[in-house]
Specification:
heterodimer; A: MetI-like fold; 16 helices; B: MetI-like fold; transmembrane helix (chain B); ABC_transporter_permease (chain B)
Chain lengths: 320, 351
């Protein structure tokens, strides 16, 4: 074990940071004799260069990805006059006034509350209706089953912008335009295709024995669903729940169309877009930056806590 | 054992059922109203009947499907078909919509501003996915294979890979509206981050009025924002795909004397190709949309993408014309999907 690579391996073991990697070193040791030895002997020096090279690029993109967001958060603590004089400066003291202005005068607090109210209805509705439809499609045979499944699956390919104008008049005719229930219903309807599709494949993977056992014990279909099957589907519900939470919280197009009447009813993304216009006129850039920070930080904190589930939930959306 | 007041439902039903005509009239009635009554009001005799169980099953299926299907049909499916119909009318939002054949499409053909918006959207459609996916694959490869060699591993992930993925993914969890506002400030000519940085490092001569009205600058700025917001998504997606490749394959490639480049192009890329193709289609559809970024970041700019052009016609009340533009967008995104499927078709490699 006096090869160059062994030294590298020891160094890596000594490096405290490398101890935090997800890959257990013991597993590597178990496979050590298999074929890695030759490769290691040849590639030791190159490996070190590559490692520095890759960290260099990776750190560069960390700065690129987080830089604008960090800049916004830092500038939020500076008085507007300071910022206009030198956009690159750091805050000299914690200037909370911008946040107060953003929350009250720029109404970010109100927009956030609107978003919470809408989401409470739409997320509950989406999860409930989506899992009901998915359960029936996945676990029961009946004429039209396949057709309904394809109907939902086809909706995922659907460009929302094409449906917008007729949707606008349908909502208008039902007196749902510029109302909270209208917006909630629209969120639910446009989240259903993917939610149903995703949960259908999830319910199909659950064992059928449990469902039969519940039925034989005299539970009704409804009771079997709510008390037996739904708890078993929890991992799938969490993934799709996070997906819908972020999608609906960040929704811009539907509220722009269906909730554009009164500025007091704006949801958060709408409010932020309106803020650039209103704060631009008022010349109060500090409040704009503070408003962006207030909107951004809670989402990023929640994401950092649930990062594994969020990444899994959102990338599941692309693979379909 | 729990005691039950009624027999096991699977019992009598399997022994054969009483023909419908011979059922007591009370049971006939019970069958008829069983659809509406909760099970506890239905007599046990009826409940044990196989026909009741079929009825119960369909009652459940209909009950669970009716609301989701109704929402979906009324607010998603029906607007979709209505849009196609309205694209052949002169509908202006009122009660009347006269059928005008292909007039809207002819008007579009002769509408220079429409063509200019299509040109912008097509440029985004072609370039944004290529740039975003290339960066995504590059960083994903750095994360999964750029680390120091550890004992017994042909490829090693970098230290801190989950940290990188977490930060890269930040833009994905933020609203596109928020991103557009942030970048509007970054590009701001008076006091933006970009011009500030350029001044700081002595490249003050490169300072620009980025969103000042120049078409090319606006296009680059828009492309950069869309690519920026999606790179992290693809890093996570592709590094998961790369992580699923068995290590033995890399070991075999190394033993055969393959270098880094050969390993990447001959092993990694072909093995994640299906994911790349799916990602390409998804990114293309996102780039073709680009609605919120352009509408919020560069309002009043010469740069218009087709969805924004559609939205402006809608706000002017030209509903028929706007839906026709929407139909063209649908055709464009379908054509793009088919082309990528065709170009990207390779033999799927099982591993």
């Amino acid at each position: 074990m006096s090869t160059d690579a062994a030294a590298v391996a020891e160094k890596a073991a000594a490096d405290p940071a490398s101890g935090s990697t997800t890959r257990p070193r013991a597993a590597g040791g178990g496979r050590g004799g298999k074929g890695g030895k030759d490769a290691r002997g040849l590639k030791g020096g190159e490996s070190r260069t590559l490692n520095a090279f890759s960290h260099g690029f990776l750190v560069l993109w960390v700065i690129m990805a987080a830089g604008p967001l960090v800049w916004v958060a830092l500038t939020a603590f500076r008085p507007t006059a300071d910022y206009l004089g030198d956009p690159m400066g750091l805050p000299t003291s914690l200037h909370w006034e911008n946040f107060v202005n953003a929350w009250t005068e720029a109404k970010v607090g109100r927009y956030a509350l609107n978003s919470v109210i809408i989401l409470a209805g739409s997320l509950t509705g989406t999860m409930l209706l989506g899992s009901m439809a998915a359960y029936v499609i996945a676990r029961f045979t009946f004429p039209g089953n396949r057709f309904i499944f394809l109907l939902f699956a086809g909706g995922m390919m659907f460009p929302v912008i094409l449906a917008l104008i007729p949707l606008f008049t349908i909502m208008d005719n039902l007196s749902l335009l510029d109302t909270r229930p209208g917006l909630i219903i629209a969120y639910i309807a446009y989240s259903l295709p993917f939610t149903t599709f995703f949960l259908t494949s999830f319910f199909r993977t659950l064992p059928s024995g449990v469902q039969e056992a519940a039925m034989i014990d005299g539970a009704s279909h409804t009771r079997t669903f709510f008390q037996v099957m739904l708890p078993m589907a929890k991992p799938g519900l969490v993934s799709i729940g996070i997906f819908n939470f972020l999608g609906q919280w960040n929704q811009y197009l539907l509220p722009l169309l269906l909730n554009n009447d009164d500025e007091n009813n704006y949801v958060l993304p709408q409010g932020l877009a309106a803020l650039t216009v209103s704060q631009g006129y008022a010349g109060d850039w500090g409040a704009l930056f503070a408003g962006l920070t207030l909107a951004m930080v809670p989402v990023l904190v929640v994401y950092a806590v649930f990062q594994r589930q969020v990444q899994a939930g959102l990338t599941a959306g692309a693979i379909k | 054992m729990r005691t039950r007041t009624r027999p096991d439902p699977s019992g009598p039903a399997t022994q054969g059922t009483v023909p419908w005509r011979k059922l007591p009239p009370g049971d006939k009635l019970a069958f008829a109203v069983a659809v509406l009554l909760p099970p506890r009001f239905t007599p046990a005799r009826v409940r044990a009947d196989r026909r009741y169980r079929t009825l119960d099953k369909y009652r459940f299926i209909v009950g669970f499907l009716i609301l989701p299907l109704a929402f979906y049909a009324v607010f998603v499916i029906s607007p979709f078909f209505q849009a196609i119909y309205y694209s052949f009318t002169d509908w202006a939002g009122g009660a009347t919509a006269n059928f005008v054949g292909f007039d809207n499409y002819v008007k579009m053909w002769n509408d220079e501003k429409f063509w200019s918006s299509v040109q912008t959207s097509l440029l985004l459609l072609v370039f944004v996915p290529v740039v975003t996916l290339a960066l995504g694959i590059f960083f994903a490869y750095m994360i999964t294979a750029g680390g120091r060699h550890r004992r017994g591993e042909a490829v090693s992930g970098v230290v801190g890979s989950s940290f990188y993925k977490v930060v890269y993914f930040f833009p994905q969890v933020l609203s596109i509206a928020l991103i557009a506002v942030v970048w509007q400030q970054v590009y701001s000519s008076r006091s933006g981050l970009l011009n500030g940085l350029l001044g700081e490092v002595g490249l003050g001569s490169l300072e620009q009025r980025w969103l000042g009205g120049d078409y090319k600058l606006g296009l680059f700025a828009t492309m950069a924002v869309i690519a920026w917001s999606f790179v992290g998504f693809y890093v996570v997606l592709f590094s998961a795909a790369m992580g699923a490749i068995p290590k033995d394959i890399y070991e075999a490639a190394l033993l055969d004397g393959a270098g880094r480049g050969a390993t990447f192009f001959r092993v990694t890329l072909p093995l994640i190709w299906d994911t790349v193709r799916t990602g390409w289609i998804y990114m293309g559809i996102q780039a073709l949309d680009a609605f919120a970024v352009v509408l919020i970041m560069v309002p009043g700019h010469v740069l218009k993408v087709t969805p924004v052009y559609l939205y402006e016609r809608f706000r002017e009340g030209q509903f028929g014309y706007a839906t026709a533009i929407g139909v063209v967008l649908l055709v464009l995104s379908m054509a793009f999907t088919l082309i990528v499927m065709r170009i990207g078709r390779r033999e799927t490699i099982e591993y």
